[in-house]
Amino acid sequence: MQDLLYFSQQLVNGLTIGSAYALIAIGYTMVYGIIGMINFAHGEIYMIGAYTALIAITGLATLGVAWLPVILLVALICAVIVSSSMGWAVERVAYRPVRGRHRLIPLISAIGMSIFLQNYVHLAQGSRNIGFPALIDGSFRFGAPESFQLSLSYMQITIFITTLICMTLLSLFISRSRIGRACRAVSQDLGMANLLGIDTNRIISATFVIGASLAAVAGLLLGMYYGSVDPLFGFIAGLKAFTAAVLGGIGSIPGAMLGGLILGVSESMTSGYLSGEYKDVVSFSLLILILLFKPTGLLGKPEVEKI
Amino acid sequence: MATHNLKHALFCAIVTVVIAYPILGLDLVAQGTQIGLEGATPTTIISIFLAAGIVFLFQLFRDNIMGNLGKLPKLNPLSGREPMPAEKRAKVEAWVLTAIIVLALFWPFVVSRGSVDLATLVLIYIMLALGLNVVVGLAGLLDLGYVAFYAVGAYTFALLYQYFGFTFWMALPVGALLAATFGMVLGFPVLRLRGDYLAIVTLGFGEIIRILLNNWTAVTGGPNGIGGIPDPTLFGMEFGRRVKGEGNTSFHETFGIAYSGEHKVIFLYLIALVLAVITALVIRRLMRMPVGRAWEALREDEIAARSLGLSRTAVKLSAFTIGAFFAGFAGTVFASKQGFISPESFVFLESAIILAIVVLGGMGSQIGVILAAIAVTILPELAREFSDFRMLVFGAAMVLMMVWRPQGLMPMRRIPISLKRQE
User: Fold this and answer.
1) Among partner residues B189, B207, B399, which is closest to A109 by beta-carbon distance?
2) Chain B neighbours among A 242-301 (CB < 8 Å)?
3) Which chain A residues have a beta carbon less than 8 Å from that of B26?
């Protein structure tokens, strides 16, 4: 019983982190699916989302707003607006001018952008980590009080539910809306979509905006879950999310969700049963192994190299 | 067209304010256990709106501005000039290089100790950048975990000294060879991957090495690092005030001169100089050998190169191994110079800096990379009050270079040979 509870606890923790990774991974996978580049600065956009949410929450607290739903909603909206503007601007400044050049050039540009954004926040807000207020407190507990208890916090439930809502909305958007249809068309064949009258530049911008908005949601959720933010907050999370995207098959949206969950669970199992320090080693090793043996990921389509 | 431009310009200006204002204009400050918000200074606010105004005007008149820029005469007056004949060029280059090296040999005796120390660091970066230049610039493999090989070199020396009492000269080849072995072992499986996947895998590898160094406390000392790494000796002569090693003599007593801390710094500088020159010459030679041509061929067109019978794995692996070898070299010198190493010195940012040097200098161009290494290391030291902005400027410079001049400041030049049409 004890072991089962302990295992379930790790599973719950893993699924929580994993679903947030999945939210970030969507941004990587959509951009890669359409223009075939790794948006290295995506982790930083997520970090900026977390900062904006924190600024909004603090601002509302100063103004004396105390009703939780309002605070969360305003923080969410602010984070989404700022992050998606950032995503749009990054694409315009750093990626559009180098689109279609040799593969390494957009990637180096993206790395530069990532360093730039990290230091932008570092200079503006300081390098210390700042405490994020725990707005959603409390938890359900299972198990006998004198032994190990499985705790399922309200925060974790919020993360699951929000992720679920976001993913449902995204799936509906991609499958039903005009822009979503255009997105799918562009990711299949950019040139052909262009010929058929789709404004591909607009669709690529839309992809960046959608990815950045989901990253902002993840920023708010994970900021609250971890309880603090700092300018390097996005780097490791970005790498993890990229791993999740690759794991599930880059370019595939359900793949990103699946990859995020698998990565989150394997990470929390490592910290639960081996040691917390090596959880990053496990996820990076996972990334390397997948790229070596199944570069298309779990749900990705095999890529045929054309000559 | 005009209204469309106006709408777009307005949108861009609003986006500028939206992305700049919350982060720059509202500061989070700790007030006891709580956090509060503080408005930024009026100057910041004004500059945000000024920036938005500039963006607005630029986007509004974008077509006119870009059109006029194209009409401007070429900035570089040399661009239209005939290139120097190859033989003459080689001669001039050889003379200039010899002069620079001779100057560099005598230079440390006249300047302050601090400058020599900085120059040693510059030389270490030159070695690293030249090594990475082989991987990224010549072979076209984006390696984001290059710092891992640097760490292998540094930790090899530190650990061999700690456990087996190795000296600098014994550790130098071991460190370099071990780093090369790491490069080969990592390279063998991953080099099949496509460019951007390779970048991510090497990044992951770099992080794994750093995390292992950080957590394997029993051997590496964890975050506390390893201290007391000895300085190099000159034929068994030590540069410290007192002799530490058995059977060694001290430099100042042997020559009967007064002890000075500067001897050690200058000696280390000279070692770094010699190693950097060796690195540059070896790589220069390799570039002209078949293997160097193969690197470039594979970078330019993998399919064509393979169809001409080049083995993709062997060529890429050789570039990777040689790059790692020189990183190991640099790592050993670094460990000896610092006397103390910890995982802090081998973070991803370090890889990014070395990559930035290669990119700024011009991928593949040795002279460009050397100049960029000097500039990137010295500029922040000169402008210490702006040192916080160093990485910000780096990031921006990397983006701008990729947008405007992806070939770098001093691109590699190949003198083209064209076939004359038979009349």
Assistant:
1) B399
2) 242-243, 246, 275, 277-278, 280-281, 284-285, 287-288, 291-292, 295
3) 55, 59
Residues B59 and B154 in one domain: no
Q: How far apart are CA B328 and CA B172, in angstroms?
A: 8
* This prediction's pTM: 0.86
A232 shares contact with chain B (CB less than 8 Å) = no
**Mutating which of B24, B29, B35, B359 best tests the A interface, going by the most A Cβ atoms within 10 A?**
B35
Does the structure's ipTM exceed the value 0.90? no
At A238-272, the pLDDT tens digits run 888 988 888 888 888 888 889 999 999 998 888 88
Q: Are residues B129 and B214 in the same domain?
A: yes
Q: What does the alpha-carbon distance between residue B326 and residue B332 come to, in Å, rounded to a whole number?
A: 10
Q: For residue range A203-231, list pLDDT tens digits in order.
A: 999 999 999 999 999 999 999 888 888 88
Domain around B276: 89-404
Is B125 an interface residue toward A (CB < 8 Å)? no
Query: Does B83 reside within a domain?
Result: no
Q: Is the domain of B236 the same as that of B282?
A: yes
| Amino acid code (one letter) for B85 | P
A123 CB burial (10 A radius; 0-12, 13-18, 19+):
middle
Question: Among candidates A202, A118, A96, which has minimal Cα distance to B402?
Answer: A96
Q: Report the number of distinct structural domains present in chain B.
A: 2
Q: Identify the segments of chain B with pLDDT beneath 50.
A: none
| Pair (B59, B110) in one structural domain | no
Task: Judge if B329 and B223 occupy the same domain.
Answer: yes
Same domain? B62 vs B94: no
Q: What is the pLDDT of residues A62-78, one digit of tens each?
A: 888 778 888 899 999 99
Of A93, A102, A27, the residue nearest A256 (C-alpha): A27
